[in-house]
Amino acid sequence: MIHPLPRQLKNGLTAILVPQKGATSVTIFVMIKVGSRYEARNINGASHFIEHLMFKGTKRRPTTQILTSTIDRYGAEYNAFTGKDLTAYYIKIDACQTALAVDLLHDMLFNSLFDSKEIDRERGVIVEEINMYEDNPGMHLGDLLEEAIFPKSTLGWNIAGPREVVRQVTREQLINYRDAYYAPQRMAVVLAGKIMPGAMALLQKTFGSVRPKLVGADYDFSPFCPPGRLADPVALQNKKTEQVKLGLAFHGLPIKHKDLPAATLLSTILGGSMSSRLFINIRERRGLCYSIHASHDALEDTGIFSVMAGLDKSRLSEAVLAILTELKHAVRSPVTREELRRAKDHLHGHTMLAFENSAVQAEWYGRQWTFLKELQTPEEKMKLVERVTAGQIQRVAKQILRSEHLAAAVIGPFTKNAITRLISRVRF
Question: Which of 67, 241, 269, 301 is most buried, most CB within 10 Å of its CB?
Answer without folding.
Answer: 269
